[in-house]
Amino acid sequence: MSSPQEVFEAIRAEAGTVLIGNEDIIEGLTISMLTGGHTLLEGVPGVAKTTIATLFARSTGLQYQRIQMTPDVLPADITGTHIYRENLGEFELQRGPVFANLVLADEINRATPKTQSALLEAMQEGNVTIEGDTLELPKPFMVVATQNPIEQEGTFELPEAQRDRFQLKYVVDLPQRAEEKEMLKRFDSSPALGPNSIERVVTAGDLLAAREVVNEIYVDEKVHEYILDLVAATRESEAVEHGASPRASLAFLNAGKARAAIRGRDFVTPDDVKALAPNVLIHRLILGTEAELSGRSRKEIVNEILGSVSIPQQDLDADEATVG
Protein backbone atom coordinates (compact mmCIF):
# COMPACT_ATOMS: atom_id res chain seq x y z
CA MET A 1 0.00 0.00 0.00
CA SER A 2 2.02 2.97 -1.29
CA SER A 3 -0.85 5.33 -2.11
CA PRO A 4 -1.10 8.16 0.46
CA GLN A 5 -4.84 8.25 -0.19
CA GLU A 6 -5.22 4.55 0.67
CA VAL A 7 -3.02 4.93 3.75
CA PHE A 8 -5.11 7.80 5.08
CA GLU A 9 -8.43 6.13 4.33
CA ALA A 10 -7.33 2.97 6.12
CA ILE A 11 -6.19 4.89 9.20
CA ARG A 12 -9.30 7.13 9.20
CA ALA A 13 -11.68 4.18 8.92
CA GLU A 14 -10.01 2.17 11.68
CA ALA A 15 -9.69 5.11 14.08
CA GLY A 16 -13.31 5.96 13.30
CA THR A 17 -14.49 2.74 14.92
CA VAL A 18 -13.73 4.46 18.23
CA LEU A 19 -13.31 8.16 17.43
CA ILE A 20 -16.33 10.31 16.61
CA GLY A 21 -15.53 13.42 14.59
CA ASN A 22 -12.05 15.00 14.53
CA GLU A 23 -11.25 13.50 11.11
CA ASP A 24 -9.32 16.67 10.30
CA ILE A 25 -6.93 15.87 13.15
CA ILE A 26 -6.42 12.31 11.92
CA GLU A 27 -5.66 13.83 8.53
CA GLY A 28 -3.20 16.26 10.13
CA LEU A 29 -1.41 13.45 11.96
CA THR A 30 -1.20 11.51 8.69
CA ILE A 31 0.18 14.57 6.90
CA SER A 32 2.88 14.99 9.54
CA MET A 33 3.75 11.30 9.46
CA LEU A 34 4.07 11.34 5.66
CA THR A 35 6.33 14.41 5.69
CA GLY A 36 8.52 13.87 8.75
CA GLY A 37 6.69 16.54 10.72
CA HIS A 38 5.34 16.80 14.24
CA THR A 39 1.92 17.81 15.57
CA LEU A 40 0.75 19.79 18.60
CA LEU A 41 -2.75 19.12 19.95
CA GLU A 42 -4.37 21.66 22.29
CA GLY A 43 -7.65 21.31 24.11
CA VAL A 44 -9.37 21.32 27.46
CA PRO A 45 -9.35 18.12 29.56
CA GLY A 46 -11.55 15.29 28.38
CA VAL A 47 -11.72 16.02 24.63
CA ALA A 48 -9.68 12.90 23.68
CA LYS A 49 -6.33 14.48 22.76
CA THR A 50 -4.38 11.51 24.11
CA THR A 51 -6.91 9.05 22.73
CA ILE A 52 -6.58 10.51 19.23
CA ALA A 53 -2.81 10.09 19.30
CA THR A 54 -3.12 6.56 20.67
CA LEU A 55 -5.69 5.54 18.05
CA PHE A 56 -3.45 6.88 15.30
CA ALA A 57 -0.43 5.01 16.65
CA ARG A 58 -2.29 1.72 17.01
CA SER A 59 -3.80 1.90 13.54
CA THR A 60 -0.34 2.39 12.05
CA GLY A 61 1.17 -0.38 14.16
CA LEU A 62 4.19 1.80 14.90
CA GLN A 63 6.24 1.48 18.05
CA TYR A 64 4.60 3.93 20.44
CA GLN A 65 5.73 5.56 23.68
CA ARG A 66 3.82 7.94 25.90
CA ILE A 67 5.71 10.32 28.19
CA GLN A 68 3.62 11.94 30.91
CA MET A 69 5.28 15.33 31.26
CA THR A 70 5.60 16.70 34.79
CA PRO A 71 7.98 19.24 36.37
CA ASP A 72 10.16 16.47 37.81
CA VAL A 73 10.78 14.73 34.47
CA LEU A 74 14.45 15.13 33.52
CA PRO A 75 16.00 15.23 30.03
CA ALA A 76 17.61 11.83 30.66
CA ASP A 77 14.15 10.41 31.38
CA ILE A 78 13.33 11.17 27.74
CA THR A 79 16.55 10.52 25.86
CA GLY A 80 18.16 7.90 28.10
CA THR A 81 21.50 7.61 29.87
CA HIS A 82 24.40 5.27 30.61
CA ILE A 83 23.89 3.01 33.61
CA TYR A 84 26.71 1.21 35.38
CA ARG A 85 26.22 -2.57 35.48
CA GLU A 86 28.17 -3.82 38.45
CA ASN A 87 28.01 -7.45 37.34
CA LEU A 88 29.58 -6.51 34.01
CA GLY A 89 31.92 -3.84 35.35
CA GLU A 90 30.93 -1.42 32.58
CA PHE A 91 28.42 1.24 31.61
CA GLU A 92 25.46 0.23 29.47
CA LEU A 93 23.28 2.53 27.41
CA GLN A 94 19.69 2.67 28.65
CA ARG A 95 17.64 4.13 25.79
CA GLY A 96 14.79 6.45 26.74
CA PRO A 97 11.21 6.48 25.44
CA VAL A 98 12.17 8.88 22.63
CA PHE A 99 13.49 5.82 20.77
CA ALA A 100 10.14 4.98 19.23
CA ASN A 101 8.39 5.69 15.94
CA LEU A 102 5.70 7.79 17.57
CA VAL A 103 6.31 9.63 20.83
CA LEU A 104 3.42 11.25 22.70
CA ALA A 105 4.58 14.07 24.98
CA ASP A 106 1.45 14.37 27.08
CA GLU A 107 0.89 17.80 28.66
CA ILE A 108 4.23 19.01 27.30
CA ASN A 109 3.89 22.42 28.94
CA ARG A 110 4.07 20.84 32.40
CA ALA A 111 7.72 19.91 31.82
CA THR A 112 10.46 22.42 32.55
CA PRO A 113 12.09 24.28 29.63
CA LYS A 114 15.25 22.19 30.08
CA THR A 115 13.26 18.99 29.67
CA GLN A 116 11.23 20.40 26.77
CA SER A 117 14.48 21.20 24.99
CA ALA A 118 15.49 17.54 25.19
CA LEU A 119 13.05 16.97 22.33
CA LEU A 120 14.47 19.72 20.10
CA GLU A 121 17.32 17.70 18.57
CA ALA A 122 15.09 14.67 18.11
CA MET A 123 12.39 16.69 16.35
CA GLN A 124 14.76 18.55 14.05
CA GLU A 125 17.57 16.10 13.37
CA GLY A 126 16.02 12.69 13.91
CA ASN A 127 18.69 11.73 16.39
CA VAL A 128 19.69 12.39 20.01
CA THR A 129 23.02 12.90 21.74
CA ILE A 130 23.60 11.04 24.99
CA GLU A 131 26.79 11.91 26.85
CA GLY A 132 28.60 12.74 23.63
CA ASP A 133 27.26 9.84 21.57
CA THR A 134 24.88 10.73 18.73
CA LEU A 135 22.29 8.02 18.14
CA GLU A 136 19.84 7.79 15.26
CA LEU A 137 16.14 7.48 16.01
CA PRO A 138 13.84 4.94 14.31
CA LYS A 139 12.28 5.74 10.95
CA PRO A 140 9.62 6.94 10.62
CA PHE A 141 9.79 9.19 13.69
CA MET A 142 7.16 11.63 14.90
CA VAL A 143 6.35 13.60 18.06
CA VAL A 144 2.76 14.35 19.02
CA ALA A 145 2.43 16.71 21.97
CA THR A 146 -0.65 17.75 23.91
CA GLN A 147 -1.30 20.76 26.09
CA ASN A 148 -4.16 22.20 28.11
CA PRO A 149 -4.87 25.91 27.46
CA ILE A 150 -6.84 26.62 30.64
CA GLU A 151 -4.64 25.31 33.46
CA GLN A 152 -1.62 27.60 33.69
CA GLU A 153 -0.51 26.93 37.28
CA GLY A 154 2.60 24.78 37.31
CA THR A 155 3.09 25.02 33.55
CA PHE A 156 5.87 26.39 31.36
CA GLU A 157 4.87 27.99 28.07
CA LEU A 158 6.61 26.45 25.09
CA PRO A 159 9.36 28.77 23.82
CA GLU A 160 9.14 30.00 20.24
CA ALA A 161 11.93 27.66 19.09
CA GLN A 162 10.01 24.67 20.44
CA ARG A 163 6.66 25.72 18.93
CA ASP A 164 8.30 26.36 15.58
CA ARG A 165 9.36 22.72 15.35
CA PHE A 166 5.77 21.56 15.29
CA GLN A 167 4.70 21.44 11.67
CA LEU A 168 0.99 21.66 12.53
CA LYS A 169 -1.15 22.61 15.50
CA TYR A 170 -4.76 21.50 15.96
CA VAL A 171 -7.24 22.67 18.56
CA VAL A 172 -9.38 19.77 19.75
CA ASP A 173 -12.79 21.33 20.37
CA LEU A 174 -15.68 20.13 22.49
CA PRO A 175 -17.97 17.87 20.44
CA GLN A 176 -21.25 18.99 18.95
CA ARG A 177 -24.36 17.68 20.73
CA ALA A 178 -25.07 15.14 17.96
CA GLU A 179 -21.49 13.82 18.16
CA GLU A 180 -21.64 13.55 21.93
CA LYS A 181 -24.96 11.71 21.69
CA GLU A 182 -23.43 9.25 19.21
CA MET A 183 -20.54 8.78 21.65
CA LEU A 184 -22.97 7.90 24.45
CA LYS A 185 -24.76 5.37 22.25
CA ARG A 186 -21.56 3.78 21.02
CA PHE A 187 -20.00 3.37 24.45
CA ASP A 188 -23.31 2.33 26.00
CA SER A 189 -23.51 -0.63 23.62
CA SER A 190 -19.74 -1.37 23.78
CA PRO A 191 -18.39 -0.32 27.21
CA ALA A 192 -14.96 -1.86 26.51
CA LEU A 193 -14.49 0.15 23.31
CA GLY A 194 -11.20 2.02 23.27
CA PRO A 195 -7.73 2.20 21.76
CA ASN A 196 -7.16 -1.49 22.52
CA SER A 197 -9.97 -2.25 20.05
CA ILE A 198 -7.92 -0.81 17.19
CA GLU A 199 -6.02 -3.07 14.81
CA ARG A 200 -3.02 -2.24 12.66
CA VAL A 201 -4.14 -1.41 9.12
CA VAL A 202 -0.87 -0.11 7.64
CA THR A 203 2.79 -0.89 8.22
CA ALA A 204 5.93 1.20 8.59
CA GLY A 205 6.82 0.08 5.07
CA ASP A 206 3.50 1.40 3.77
CA LEU A 207 4.14 4.77 5.39
CA LEU A 208 7.68 5.03 4.04
CA ALA A 209 6.49 4.08 0.55
CA ALA A 210 3.71 6.68 0.77
CA ARG A 211 6.33 9.25 1.79
CA GLU A 212 8.15 8.64 -1.48
CA VAL A 213 4.92 9.33 -3.39
CA VAL A 214 4.41 12.57 -1.45
CA ASN A 215 7.96 13.68 -2.30
CA GLU A 216 7.11 13.51 -6.01
CA ILE A 217 4.03 15.76 -5.81
CA TYR A 218 4.35 18.74 -8.15
CA VAL A 219 4.30 22.28 -6.75
CA ASP A 220 3.83 25.07 -9.30
CA GLU A 221 5.80 28.30 -9.02
CA LYS A 222 2.54 30.17 -8.42
CA VAL A 223 1.98 28.06 -5.31
CA HIS A 224 5.54 28.83 -4.18
CA GLU A 225 4.77 32.52 -4.56
CA TYR A 226 1.50 32.18 -2.64
CA ILE A 227 3.32 30.49 0.24
CA LEU A 228 5.91 33.28 0.29
CA ASP A 229 3.18 35.94 0.17
CA LEU A 230 1.37 34.42 3.16
CA VAL A 231 4.52 34.10 5.24
CA ALA A 232 5.60 37.64 4.32
CA ALA A 233 2.18 38.95 5.33
CA THR A 234 2.65 37.55 8.85
CA ARG A 235 5.91 39.49 9.13
CA GLU A 236 4.36 42.70 7.87
CA SER A 237 1.13 42.58 9.89
CA GLU A 238 0.81 45.40 12.42
CA ALA A 239 -0.81 42.96 14.84
CA VAL A 240 2.19 40.61 14.82
CA GLU A 241 5.47 41.34 16.58
CA HIS A 242 7.28 38.32 15.13
CA GLY A 243 5.93 36.56 12.08
CA ALA A 244 6.44 33.08 10.70
CA SER A 245 9.93 31.70 10.08
CA PRO A 246 11.28 29.98 6.94
CA ARG A 247 10.40 26.72 8.68
CA ALA A 248 6.75 27.73 8.25
CA SER A 249 7.31 28.07 4.49
CA LEU A 250 8.68 24.52 4.41
CA ALA A 251 5.73 23.34 6.50
CA PHE A 252 3.35 24.79 3.89
CA LEU A 253 5.30 23.13 1.10
CA ASN A 254 5.54 19.66 2.62
CA ALA A 255 2.12 19.57 4.25
CA GLY A 256 0.58 20.87 1.03
CA LYS A 257 2.13 17.98 -0.90
CA ALA A 258 0.76 15.44 1.57
CA ARG A 259 -2.71 17.03 1.59
CA ALA A 260 -2.82 16.89 -2.21
CA ALA A 261 -1.66 13.26 -2.25
CA ILE A 262 -4.23 12.24 0.35
CA ARG A 263 -6.87 13.69 -1.96
CA GLY A 264 -5.58 11.72 -4.92
CA ARG A 265 -3.86 14.58 -6.75
CA ASP A 266 -0.28 14.77 -7.97
CA PHE A 267 -0.04 18.55 -7.65
CA VAL A 268 -0.63 21.13 -4.91
CA THR A 269 -3.27 23.82 -5.31
CA PRO A 270 -3.42 27.21 -3.57
CA ASP A 271 -6.49 25.89 -1.74
CA ASP A 272 -4.30 23.22 -0.12
CA VAL A 273 -2.07 25.97 1.23
CA LYS A 274 -4.99 28.13 2.35
CA ALA A 275 -6.68 25.23 4.13
CA LEU A 276 -3.49 24.48 6.06
CA ALA A 277 -2.74 28.09 7.00
CA PRO A 278 -4.40 28.12 10.45
CA ASN A 279 -2.65 24.89 11.46
CA VAL A 280 0.73 26.03 10.13
CA LEU A 281 0.64 29.60 11.44
CA ILE A 282 -1.45 29.85 14.60
CA HIS A 283 1.24 28.61 17.00
CA ARG A 284 4.08 30.47 15.31
CA LEU A 285 2.83 34.06 15.53
CA ILE A 286 3.90 36.29 18.41
CA LEU A 287 1.33 39.04 18.75
CA GLY A 288 2.17 42.67 19.34
CA THR A 289 1.31 44.42 22.59
CA GLU A 290 -1.68 46.23 21.11
CA ALA A 291 -3.19 43.02 19.76
CA GLU A 292 -2.63 41.28 23.08
CA LEU A 293 -4.21 44.09 25.10
CA SER A 294 -7.23 44.26 22.79
CA GLY A 295 -7.81 40.54 23.23
CA ARG A 296 -7.41 39.65 19.56
CA SER A 297 -6.84 35.97 18.90
CA ARG A 298 -4.21 34.42 16.64
CA LYS A 299 -6.99 32.69 14.71
CA GLU A 300 -8.61 36.04 13.97
CA ILE A 301 -5.32 37.52 12.78
CA VAL A 302 -4.53 34.50 10.59
CA ASN A 303 -7.94 34.89 8.94
CA GLU A 304 -7.21 38.57 8.31
CA ILE A 305 -3.89 37.67 6.73
CA LEU A 306 -5.56 35.07 4.52
CA GLY A 307 -8.07 37.68 3.38
CA SER A 308 -5.32 40.17 2.55
CA VAL A 309 -3.34 37.87 0.24
CA SER A 310 -4.61 37.19 -3.27
CA ILE A 311 -5.03 33.55 -4.27
CA PRO A 312 -3.32 32.79 -7.59
CA GLN A 313 -5.28 31.24 -10.42
CA GLN A 314 -4.62 27.53 -10.82
CA ASP A 315 -3.80 26.46 -14.38
CA LEU A 316 -3.86 22.73 -13.72
CA ASP A 317 -7.05 20.68 -13.96
CA ALA A 318 -7.66 18.95 -10.64
CA ASP A 319 -9.96 16.42 -12.29
CA GLU A 320 -7.25 15.14 -14.60
CA ALA A 321 -4.40 14.56 -12.14
CA THR A 322 -4.45 11.62 -9.77
CA VAL A 323 -1.94 9.91 -7.58
CA GLY A 324 -1.41 6.24 -8.22
UniProtKB/TrEMBL annotation:
One of its GO terms (molecular function) is ATP binding. SUPFAM superfamilies: P-loop containing nucleoside triphosphate hydrolases (SSF52540). Coiled coil: none annotated. Residues 35-176 form the AAA+ ATPase domain. It comes from the Archaea. It holds the Pfam family AAA_lid_2. This is MoxR-like ATPase. It comes from Halogranum rubrum.
